[in-house]
Amino acid sequence: MNDFIQNLFITKNTKRKIKLLSAIKEEKMDILSLAKMLEVSRDTIQKDIDYLKTYYHDLIFEHKDNHSITYSCRFEGQFQIVSQLMNEEPSFYILKQIYEHNVVSFDEVAERFFISVSTLERYMRDLNRFLSRYEMKLKGKPIICWGNELAIRCFFTNMLYFTRQFQLFSPPKVSFNTFLQNFKFELRAFSTAYDPIKVVMRFQVCISRILQGATITLSKKQRDTIVQDHHFEAFQTYLNEFAKENLGIDDFPDDETRFLFVAIKESHIYYSLFLQVQISRNKHYLCDNHHRILCQEILNIRDPELINVLSCYLDDLYILKDFGQNTLIEELPSKQVEEYDKVLLEKCHLISHMFTSDQEAVPAIAYKLAQIVVTNQKQAEEETYIFVVLQDDINEQLYLEKTLQPFLPKNMIVQFQHASRFFSDQTKNTYVITNDYTIQSSAHTYFIEYPCVLKELQDTLIKLARSHIYGNVPLNRDKV
User: Fold this and answer.
1) Which of 299, 2, 288 is nearest to 134 (CA)?
2) Looking at CB atoms within 10 Å, which of 307, 332, 343, 398 has the fewest?
């Protein structure tokens, strides 16, 4: 079960049962092991097991041998139990009522779940701690949803997606699938890598919020950065007709049209070739705040636009991985990963481990995160000169064009010189890579072997380029 659903179980006893079910679904476990894993007493675990066996006796299995008693649960069994526990948890009921435009009375919720008003108030505080990740909270009597509208839509999209197997929400009265399928036929730019279910739910949530009067107003900068290609006019016409006929909206808001166009068209995995374009479009509306903080703190990135792209990538990848769509993660050879610097990769691996338990996917995810950082981090505005000063004779121009140029930023200029002809005043934007050990050493001088090994030269240039982009890359300056 994914973390999103687990976090919506606020009641401690229920949350513990959910974690217990997840554990025994994966493998047979005894009471002691479960107690250690969940950090509670053996008596508490025994009570939970007895409760589950009493109410779900045909779903929880007890295995006895000569030495111990272990327990297990079929996947189908876990599904049925979790579905029932959702109905007993106030958070799912409250959020469902809000999403479906129903008035949620504080007293009615307390009465429905047989708890006091003071207990419900404490419960709401705990629930709001989780919702704060999405820049939203529940408050008031009746209970309503407050916060950043873009973040609220992100939250409800995730909730619909993660709970779709449990049929928590009532089916929509309007067929959004028909609308999107018709438009997808017209919009041939749609990628086959899109998750059509997520696209439908994102559209469904937007329409639901609009019907509640919660609309989006974009700034002039946001409007200008949303590229309106030749498909936009067709989308706008089709959307207006759909809204008028099916939703009773005669004049669909222009900013909502722009937002929906981008949200539907670009709701794919974020390791495409157009990351630089995505950065320029301020795609903050798809971000999970938890992933944003993760990238910011661990990778120490301060560029907010790059943080947004990274968190978008993790958000979409996390959802897709949760439902086993492994084909959308490229299985990249480890040798490609090794081309990136060790410090950055270690940090990217740490992030990958934090949001997925699939060990086979971690290297590919870490590689992609490193790739996004390296290729999209803001580069220095000033030009940097690298002098490759060798005692060898090599075809510099051909080598530079065919082998090195793809690895280097445009504002890094490489010049080859023979050691006998080299002279340069080294400044802060000048570096020297050489195998002539008579050249004076400095912080900007990097020594390589003589005779020149092209692979070593290439690796040094690549590392220097990476250092130029994001800094703090340790290089071997004293090789002899």
Assistant:
1) 288
2) 398
Pairing between β-strand 445-447 and β-strand 430-434 as defined by DSSP bridges: parallel
Per CATH, domain 89-147 is 1.20.58: no
In DSSP notation, 159-214 reads HHHHTGGGT-SPPPSS-HHHHHHHHHHH-TT--TTS-HHHHHHHHHHHHHHHHTT-
433 - beta bridge partners?
Answer: 388, 446
Domain boundaries, the chain: 3-79, 89-147, 176-268, 280-376, 384-470
Rounded to whole angstroms, the Cα distance separating 161 from 270 reads 18
What CATH number does the domain located at 384-470 have?
Answer: 3.40.50
What local confidence, expressed as pLDDT, does residue 191 receive?
40
Instruction: Say which amino acid occupies 183.
Output: F
What topology is assigned to 3-79 in CATH? Answer: Arc Repressor Mutant, subunit A (1.10.10)
- Tell me the angle at which helices 149-162 and 304-322 cross, rounded to the nearest 10 degrees: 20
What is residue 445's DSSP assignment? E
The Cα–Cα gap between 99 and 95 comes to 6
Which CB contacts under 8 angstroms, 24+ apart, belong to 2-8?
A: 2/162, 2/322, 4/158, 4/159, 4/162, 5/82, 5/162, 5/163, 7/130, 8/89, 8/91, 8/92, 8/95, 8/127, 8/130, 8/159
pLDDT the model gives residue 268: 39
- Fold match between domain 3-79 and domain 89-147: yes
Per-residue pLDDT tens for 146-192?
A: 988 877 887 888 888 888 878 888 887 777 767 766 665 555 444 43
User: pTM for the full model?
Assistant: 0.56
Mean of all residue pLDDT scores within the chain:
74
| Cα three-residue angle 420-425-429, rounded to 5 degrees | 115
Residues 301, 377: contact at Cβ < 8 Å? yes
Report the alpha-carbon distance of residue 382 to residue 73 in Å, rounded.
62
